Amino acid sequence: MSSGLKIAVVEDHEDLRNLFVGFLNGQSHDVAGFSCADELDEHLADNAVDLMILDLNLPGEDGFSIAQRFRAVHPDLHIIMLTARTAVSDRIKGYASGADLYLSKPVSPAELGAAVGSVARRVFNEANRRTVLTLDTVRQVLRGDTAEVAIGKLEVVLLKSLAEAPGQKLEYWRLLELLSLDPDDKSKSALEVRISRLKKKMTEAGAPDPAIKSLWKEGYQLCTAVSLDT
Fold it and tell me: What is the pLDDT of residues 116-126, one digit of tens each?
């Protein structure tokens, strides 16, 4: 696994935003900058990120609200908050909103880079600690540290496809195609139910939660290493 993270920097001060984006890109991360929540939402409709760096004082939706909104949907998302607010009450609110780190401005690129490096190491360690499950596609069972669990034919198709996909993620349309479902809201609900059942069985076999995560407006991503026994 590469040590680089996919990062979104949300900062309305253009020069500062460009400074942070350029510095972090130079540290082998994949970084994009945004001036407000609307720009961020547009980007995340088609892209996933590992880390969000949020200024709190933004035009429109503030950093606290953005953090709460995305943390509710993506519990494994990492968040660094940047702000000139130094009151203890603001720090408490920041952590309550979902921040992993709360840095007071002014923040130098080097200090921010060190904080991002700390998050990157945590992400890398979390990935290496992932439980490895074995999918027996012939017997249609999932073997893990705690149990061997029988799964259905379509669940085999879903899990095998996710395990073999780039980044272990697939878009909604492709998952619906695998299940021979039409691309509509009713079919997405059926897919959600199928994924939920598969996640439960993966957890029974020994996978940590979440075994599969939802990518907002995109699809699903496998979060547990799965080896294939064919």
Answer: 998 888 887 66
